[in-house]
Amino acid sequence: MSRIADGAVPSPNIWRSPDLYETENRAVDPDAVIEKLMQEVRPWHGCVDLLDVGCGSGFHLPRFAAQAAHVWGVEPHSRLTSLARRRCQDLANVTVLDGSAQRLPLPAASVDIMHARWAYFFGPGCEPGLLELDRVMRRGGTGFIIDNDPTRSTFGRWFSRARPAYDTAAVDAFFSRRGWSAVHREIRWEFQRRADFESVVGIEFAPELAKRIVAEHAGCQVDYAITIRIRNF
Q1: 116, β-bridge pairs
Q2: Is pLDDT above 80 for 29?
Q3: Cβ distance 27 to 190 under 8 Å?
Q4: Which residue among 14, 15, 95, 135 has its CA within the 20 to 30 Å range from the CA of 86?
Q5: What is d(CA 133, CA 116) in angstroms, rounded to the nearest whole number?
Q6: Distance CA 143, CA 51 (A)
Q7: Cα–Cα distance for residue pair 213/38, rounded to 1 Å
């Protein structure tokens, strides 16, 4: 039976459908726009300890571990931590831990780079997670939070239809007040099969909206706007 770390916010996509979310991970950002920007701001090759908050099934951990000295993955859903450990079982410099953003199971001043991709950080309400980052980040370290940008792109329009109450300006102001800058980029979904696109739409959106999206959108590619939030500690 899966265990959930205290304080975790349920994820409607990966928690319920980790296999389909794996398909989505393979389709997101095939041009590595996110990682290239991160490397430009704060490279992680060499003596760097990197933390992936909400690492899910560990999709990004081996990619970080190829250059970082040590990679920590923290995930609140025990079924997903098991999958992440299995994925990284042959990587000596990767440690996967059960935990939540509000209670990171790491010592103070132990992390150089933090990555959170569509994980916990959605503005008001995530103050405890941000306080934990203040504790675990080393001085001179850098945090990256990858968020959806509902104001642009095809995916952004779908996101706005799914979450009409989402207040982009309020979320941006929330992070700005806490020292996070924002960089806007365009990435894309690129699926190999139409069936994969339709399946992933089905875990990202409620059934009726997913049905409309599939009917409206042809092909296997989707333009996708994101906001990358950055803070130096």
Answers
A1: 145
A2: yes
A3: yes
A4: 135
A5: 11
A6: 9
A7: 31
Asked if 209 contacts 118 with a C-beta cutoff of 8 angstroms, the reply is: no
What CA dihedral angle connects 123, 169, 39 and 55, to 10 degrees?
30
Of 18, 24, 25, 21, the C-alpha closest to 61 is 25
Pairing, β 111-117 against β 46-53? parallel
What is the helix, strand, coil percentage profile of the chain, to 5? 35, 30, 35
CB burial readout 93-109, b (16+ within 10 A) else e: bbbbbbbbbbbbebeee
How crowded is residue 42: how many other Cβ atoms within 10 Å of its Cβ? 18
pLDDT for residue 164 is more than 80: yes
Rounded distance, CA 139 to CA 170, Å? 28
**pTM score over 0.85:** yes
Task: Please state, in angstroms and rounded to a whole number, the distance separating the CA atoms of residues 222 and 118.
Answer: 17
Question: pLDDT tens across 61-97, in order?
Answer: 999 999 999 999 999 888 899 999 999 999 999 999 9
Which of 15-19, 55-59, 227-231 is the least confident region? 15-19
Report the alpha-carbon distance of residue 72 to residue 53 in Å, rounded: 8
